[in-house]
Design goal:
Blueprint lengths: L2 H5 L3 E12 L39 H13 L7 E2 L2 E4 L9 E4 L6 E10 L2 E14 L3 E5 L2 E5 L6 E7 L6 H18 L11 E11 L9 E6 L2 H20 L7 E6 L4 E7 L9 E2 L6 E2 L2 H10 L4 H10 L5 H9 L1 H13 L5 H22 L11 H12 L5 H14 L3 H7 L9 H14 L1 H8 L5 H12 L6 H14 L4
Helix pairs in contact: 2-5, 3-4, 6-7, 8-10, 10-11, 13-15, 13-16, 14-15, 15-16
The protein binds zinc ion (ZN).
The site of zinc ion (ZN) has 8 residues, from loops.
Length: 494
């Protein structure tokens, strides 16, 4: 039972998300250290600035600001001309300076929205702000002691705060999925939740249906997949509803999602803004964002997932279902684009349909089986075009195409080269030759033929199989079936 149906009568769930995304800049937010530390030894991508030594001065990473503005524009936000950084003070051991450089009252952007589809309806969720800050160091806890890895400290971190506009855990998941799509399309984020480069905290409260004011919220952390976002919020909604029904008071607090147990547990009482003693960062100048730069960045925005989806339906005539699957992962859509760009087919819509079918069934199946990313697919888009051309020219049958595709996927060889190397003969298109084989198979299988004539329609497939075997797969099954039926029907049932 989902939260929504359970609470449909008396309670409404209210959810807002705070999403943090590391930005794909080459260097850190306020120093020149490389952000490429994923496979580096601990504490090797560090300098006095990101280690928080006294007396150092930060310098703003312009690319990080550009990425944040691009994201804000893609989320329909307004970009004020004046912005600044602030110090957010808190005493955690992973914060090297004892404060984080973040943005408080004048963020880089405000008042946007994001839309997604829910059961055929468009849901619009307000975006309060998109701002820029720096990531913390990483703590590794062992028994009796903890270690710190400062490589992550100072990595540009963008925060996207939504309005409390979501009304179910499912909506929270859909919002998160859509936001990830947009960030990946923009090229500002890797979108990898499992690696922590994209992270989500959720504020959730409940209220009696029809009540205007919000209930006391809890903040849920540690959700590292779309599924855990939905599960954690379902659990938390039920927990709060049970508490209210039992006459207990919900306290504002931060709770952690424990994936293995499927529960949220209290972590600490939630801070209020004044606990952080925000004040303007004295080591950085205010940011004046010129209108010309904003327009320059707007012009650089790539095609976003919604636009690509619509284009696949209008330009290529693909179904909504296929267009959705092709655009959910940008890399898959990019592959499809390359197939279309390399195609010289006279009928682009027919080619698009065939390319989409082969890509979504066979190629995706092989990619999943070998557990690789689409961007690392050993079958190049040009090789897939080559295969589709061979099919269009009726040089190979569909069955042969599947086998050739598997071989090309494994070896990287071009399909045409495989056809030549293996001496694959063109399909038998000579009608008289096929008729001869059909007659031969019927006279060698009198019993099966009579079974068919007596009404056992399954018997037909057995004969088709015999013919395919005899022609070594070089006949087209649909033509064989047609010829076979015609021949069998010439003789009345016995
Ligand atoms: Zn540094």
């Amino acid at each position: 039972m989902t939260t929504d149906t359970h609470t449909a009568t008396d309670f409404e769930v209210v959810i807002g998300l705070e999403v943090h995304s590391q930005l794909l800049t080459k260097s850190k937010m306020f120093c020149t250290c490389s952000t490429d530390y994923a496979n580096a030894a601990p504490n090797t991508h560090v300098c006095p600035v990101c280690m928080g030594m006294p007396g150092v001065l930060p310098v703003i990473n312009q690319q990080a600001v550009a990425y944040t503005i691009m994201t804000a524009l893609a989320l329909n936000c307004t970009i004020p001309e004046y912005s600044k950084f602030d110090r957010k003070n808190y005493p955690y051991p992973d914060l090297m300076k004892g404060y984080q450089i973040s943005q408080y009252d004048v963020p880089l952007s405000r008042n946007g929205y994001l839309t997604f589809d829910l059961n055929g309806q468009t849901r619009r969720i307000g975006i309060t702000r998109v701002h820029l800050e720096e990531d913390t160091a990483r703590l590794l806890h062992h028994e009796g002691y903890s270690l710190i890895d400062i490589n992550r400290s100072g990595t540009p971190l963008m925060e996207i705060v939504s309005e409390p506009d979501m009304r179910s855990p499912e909506e929270a998941r859909l919002y998160m999925q859509k936001l990830r799509e947009i960030l990946v399309y923009l090229g500002v984020s890797s979108g990898r939740m499992e690696e922590g480069s994209l992270r989500c905290d959720a504020n959730i409260s409940i209220r009696p249906r029809g009540q205007k004011e919000l209930g006391v919220k809890t903040e849920i952390k540690n959700m590292n997949s779309f599924r855990s976002v939905e599960h954690a919020l379902e659990y938390e909604a039920q927990r709060q509803i049970a508490m209210v029904r039992a006459g207990e008071t919900i306290h504002q607090e931060t709770r952690g999602w424990v994936e293995t147990k499927g529960i949220t547990v209290p972590q600490r009482s939630k801070e209020q803004a004044h606990d952080y003693r925000y004040f303007p960062e004295p080591d950085l100048p205010p940011l004046i964002i010129s209108r010309a730069w904003v327009e320059e960045l707007r012009a650089q925005l790539p095609e976003l997932p919604d636009a690509r989806r619509t284009r696949y339906m209008t330009e290529y005539g693909l179904s909504a279902q296929d267009a959705n699957v092709l655009t959910e992962e940008k890399a898959l859509g990019d592959y499809f684009e390359q197939v279309m760009a390399a195609s010289h087919a006279s009928d682009r819509k027919a080619r698009a349909k065939a390319a989409s079918n082969w890509l979504l069934s066979e190629v995706v199946r092989l990619i999943k089986a070998s557990n690789i990313a689409i961007s690392a697919c050993p079958l190049s888009p040009v090789a897939l075009v080559n295969l589709l051309d061979l099919l269009d020219k009726e040089r190979i049958t569909g069955k042969q195409a599947k086998e050739i595709l598997e071989e090309a996927f494994a070896s990287g060889e071009m399909p045409e080269a495989i056809v030549t190397r293996k001496g694959i003969k063109p399909p038998i298109t000579d009608q008289r030759e096929l008729e001869r084989i059909v007659e031969e198979v019927i006279s060698n299988n009198v019993k099966i033929a009579n079974d068919y004539r007596a009404g056992k329609t399954n018997a037909l497939q057995a004969l088709v199989g015999q013919i395919m075997k005899q022609t070594r797969g070089q006949a087209k099954p649909d033509i064989v079936q047609k010829l076979l039926k015609a021949k069998l029907d010439e003789v009345p049932p016995m």
